[in-house]
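Long-time lurker. I teach an intro course on protein structure, and each term I like to show students one example going from raw sequence to a predicted 3D structure in token notation. This year I'd like something fresh instead of my usual example. Would anyone be willing to generate the tokens for the chain below so I can use it in lecture? Attribution to the forum is fine with me.
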Amino acid sequence: MELEQQSKVNFIPCVRWVKKGMAKCNPEKVQLNKEELVRIINQTKAGLRIAEAEDGGESSMVTENANDEYNFEKYDEEDGNNAEQLLGISSLAEIPAEAEDHFSDSDDSEKEDDVIKPEDNLILAGRVEGDASILEVYVYNEAEESLYVHHDFLLPAFPLCIEWLDHEAGHPPGNYCAIGSMSPIIEVWDLDIINCLEPAFKLGRKPSRKKGLSGIGHTDAVLDLSWNKNYDHILASGSVDKSVLLWDLDQGEPATTINAFNDKVQCLEWHKLEAQTLLAGSCDQTVKVFDCRSPENHQTWQVSGETERIAWNPLEPFSFFAATSTGMVHYFDCRQGQVWSINAHEKEVTGLTISGQCPGLFLTASSDGLVKIWDSAESTQPNLVYEKDFSMGLVHCLQLCPDLPFVVAAGGDNKSNNFTVFDLQNIDVVKHRFESRSLVQLVSQETPK
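-- Reply from a regular --
Happy to contribute to a lecture. Here you go:
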């Protein structure tokens, strides 16, 4: 019965590719013995109990509004130990003596699977499995046709969004992952460290009456993150609390707060070239473009439903896509307004990814289980090229690889098939549609190691 309880939830809410050459070839490995692990677990559980007591039992780590998409409300009602469940440590209260074999002090970093090659891509996947929330780091190598989990991190709350970045104050460019979750606190993990139990740094702070500390940052779940590759010390975040924060990573605090929306901010993305320009979408059925030098001055467009996903068109710098809860996809030109709109899905659009190399290629995914491949280059309205149910259940997310123009990673909620990587060139109709199209090579702002 206990095993059945733990395995009934298993899904991937968010994925993110990491470009080739961004990771260390030989990541550092933290060595923990059994006693150290037990001590850390006990300290963490004690800290959670203190925090819950201070909150009066009403933890802000979980919000009803953010839960709806993932059906967490019923899941949370089944057991009162929410804090320990969110951290995934409720089953680690005692480690049996026979588990000693799993805590090795030997250095096995030279094992072949531990080495990350320059031609490898990483894929970051947030996973919720039973009581545990996990960040999985996959290695994908197209030439070798290999895909495997290289290492993972145990997270303190359900991951809702992830963003790669290379910036930590006072350090040379690195390999980091920022995670937005049911908690208002953003955690940034060093992907070049294996077996790490704590993030490299955090953004935000809950208020504490006992310590006399005021809160910093968001007051509710963080729904999306976007790192500014042009100003690499700036990270944008959108939240259930209706705000957009621009974090100064060097100071560890918000430099700018934008309160221009009337509902949850579900999605945002920095412009690829204009460092000051931020696109954001909300459940108030609007999309806004901000000049963050004076964010009170912004452009606003209405869309047909809650804004679920947005994306700049990397090959048309004035244009962007917005996908909604009604299944619509809108395409806007900042200079002239809406260019076209299509009824892409019968249910809400949960995934949207635009090719930065193949003109006209974009993909959508939905809670109807379908992934659709579109071509917007050769007519005034996009043409549906192909659609498929990948048997992933509700498709939560998908993203095209930045290095391989036709390779896609996707996550869903089918417990036995919730993560997949597929090559569009293996689909005949897609290959024939795009094989003669000249690919564009964009200049990258990231510096390989």
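Some talking points for your students: Helices lie at 2-7, 34-54, 64-67, 72-77, 82-87, 428-434. The longest helix spans residues 34-54.
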